[in-house]
Design goal:
11 strands; alpha/beta; two-stranded parallel sheet
Length: 334
């Protein structure tokens, strides 16, 4: 394989953008494990009493990720996130007003490998607040991350909360409105389909978010992130292959998927874990009005789910031409 090296005269700003993305990759892939290891070392050191105090704090604070979290505007507005968003770049596009008197459930598609668009748009910077004043976004992630010492504080500070039913209910149950639950509908399983050019969404069997919207009367909003699947390449893993079978089994056991992805490096463009510089355009669709129904029937859930799929496809078709998707290509629902 011929290695393509980056030119020597790359502008300093682009170098800083690459470093910003590198720290995001580290945070996403290794920081949780690093924090767990640090905690073990703390317990085994002469400062073990600090570890014990943290365990007490963890016990008292265990329910916070399911009760709106503990966000920090200071962390969300770190300068490093500006460089992170500019690297791709990441842009949030508004197609309709969202009345802050209501609560919303935003379905984010596709998952991609590392959900860069969801993090960049809903956890960092002022874009969402500027486009949708009066609304506070809550990005729901796997509950397992909130069991990692220290790491849980970091992800909560960026506005992330648990993806448990209890957590989603807490966000959507705000009497005064103004809350927006952001759920990556395809989940970890969908990351295994995140190949460049892929438009396959794992959604046909995912109806829990529909039930939550009905029970709380939260308006549904489809969100499609163009470019999300273009950031990395994956080792070929078609359904039925040995690799995909192993990945599916591991995903069911551990709760999260292990896509074998690669892209570019820091000083060369041929291999590494740094994502490609591909623009991400996250388009927020129009709200689907939902009437509160504490005990929806299966038929009502199916009807709203079908309407959601229809609106999601409509959103994609209306915008795909602007972002380089060929006219003949369309979404595939699985």
């Amino acid at each position: 394989m011929k290695v393509r090296f980056a030119p020597i005269n790359v502008p300093l700003k682009r170098r800083i953008q690459t470093v910003a993305v590198l720290q995001w990759i580290f945070s996403f892939l290794l920081l949780g494990q690093f924090c767990c290891g640090l905690f073990v070392l703390l317990i085994l050191s002469n400062f073990w009493f600090l570890g014990v105090l943290y365990l007490l704090w963890l016990y008292l604070d265990w329910g916070t990720p399911c009760a709106g979290g503990r966000r920090s505007q200071w962390v969300k507005n770190w300068t490093v996130w500006n460089y992170f968003r500019e690297y791709f770049p990441i842009q949030l596009i508004k197609t309709s007003d969202l009345d802050p008197k209501h609560n919303y459930l935003l379905g984010f598609h596709p998952h991609g490998v590392l959900v860069a668009g969801a993090f960049g748009n809903f956890c960092t910077g002022p874009s969402f607040k500027n486009l949708f004043p009066g609304l506070t976004p809550y990005l729901h992630i796997m509950p397992i991350w909130f069991g990692c010492p220290f790491f849980r504080e970091y992800v909560m500070s960026a506005g992330m909360v648990s993806a448990s039913k209890e957590s989603v209910s807490y966000v959507l149950n705000n009497a005064g409105g103004g809350h927006a639950s952001v759920i990556v509908i395809g989940g970890a399983e969908e990351s295994l389909n995140a190949h460049p050019g892929s438009l396959t969404l794992n959604i046909l069997k995912r109806k829990g978010f529909i039930k939550m919207a009905l029970k709380h009367g939260a308006h549904l909003v489809p969100v499609f992130s163009f470019g999300e699947n273009e950031l990395f390449k994956q080792v070929a893993n078609p359904r039925g292959s040995r690799l995909r079978t192993v990945q599916d089994k591991l995903q069911k056991i551990m709760g999260f998927a292990l896509p074998l992805f690669h892209a570019r490096g820091i000083f060369q463009y041929s291999f590494g874990l740094i994502p490609f510089r591909q623009p991400i355009h996250t388009v927020v669709g129009s709200p689907i009005l939902v009437k509160k129904n504490p005990n929806p029937t299966n038929e009502e859930v199916e009807q709203l789910h079908a309407l959601y799929l229809q609106e999601l496809r409509k959103l994609f078709e209306e915008h795909k031409g602007k972002y380089g998707i060929p006219e003949h290509k369309t979404l595939i629902f699985e």
